Amino acid sequence: MRHLRWLLIPIVLVPLVWVLNFGFGRDPAEIPSQLIGKPLPSFRLVTLDGQTMTAEQLRGKPILINFWASWCAPCVAEHAILSDAQRRYGDRITIVGVLYQDTADRGRTFVARYGGDWPILLDPGGTLALDFGVTGPPESYFVDAAGIVRAKQFGPLTDAVLAARVAPLLAAAIDR
Amino acid sequence: MRTLAVPVAAGATLALVALIGLTYLRPPGHPTQAELAHQIADELRCPDCQGLSVADSPSGSATEIRTQIDQLLARGLSADQVRSHFVDRYGEWILLAPRAPIAWLLPGVVVLLGLAALTAWIWRGATRPTPVIPAQQPSQADRERVREEAERLDA
Fold first, then answer.
1. Mutating which of B90, B92, B123 best tests the A interface, going by the most A Cβ atoms within 10 A?
2. What residue of B is the nearest CA neighbor of A135?
3. Helix, strand, coil: what percent of chain B each, to 5?
4. Which domains does chain A have, with CATH numbers?
5. What is the pTM of this model?
6. Domain B36-94 has CATH 1.10.8.640
7. pLDDT tens digits, one per residue of A124-142
8. Is this complex scored with an ipTM above 0.85?
């Protein structure tokens, strides 16, 4: 019976280490997307420029959907990465921004200051953000040419993440 | 007076039991749509808050979810369908109270196991026989030495 006492050490330590590592080592808002492998949610929204855009119009090319806000500090650095991506990939992918919990005026001011000429969707009522299960900006979704959501990026995009996520979408688009 | 005491006590007990029964066993009335919406909002996690329900949060996304709950209920969806609508988008994470039974059972099982281990430990301690240390008689040499020491002290 005495030797069984040694079992108490792993019984206590293993759950403790697990909680410390996985429980406290990540942002609780970083949740897996329920959309992965499913079609892009349907929408019909207006851009900052007043153009109407639907989900169906975007089919045929890989899409990067980026939820952002003018009040979101990490979105500033991410905006520069998106501008680079637009130059690098050209018309091989479609970048679409979605203004999250923000006003059109602030969105226009932001774009005027930091540049970028990809379409920015206004999302009154936050319907599209709720359909994507967004927990806060910046958050991005990678959609393949067939309109299937393939990946989610929680937090700001980096060059490495973009390259890793876009490459398979481009390869799949060529194979189609 | 004593003859009345028993029936009065029995009647009072019956009345009390009936009152409790009526209070707790009465079938719940149908909540209004606003009450149902608030109840659902109370069960959903605000997506961009820390530990607040959609009902309690003033954030923009919580407000939008409350509006969507109202719209879905007005469209005729049941409370379960409305909850599922948000679970389909955010996963079980959006529910403040998890639906998986293991989440409710596991703490109880752990407490029961702990109580069982504690009881077993106390039981073993109570039933373990106290070791009897046999009393040793001093040897003749010890007696001699004690006597010599006593004499030396007296001298």
1. B90
2. B47
3. 70, 5, 30
4. 35-175 (3.40.30.10)
5. 0.73
6. yes
7. 999 999 999 999 999 999 9
8. no
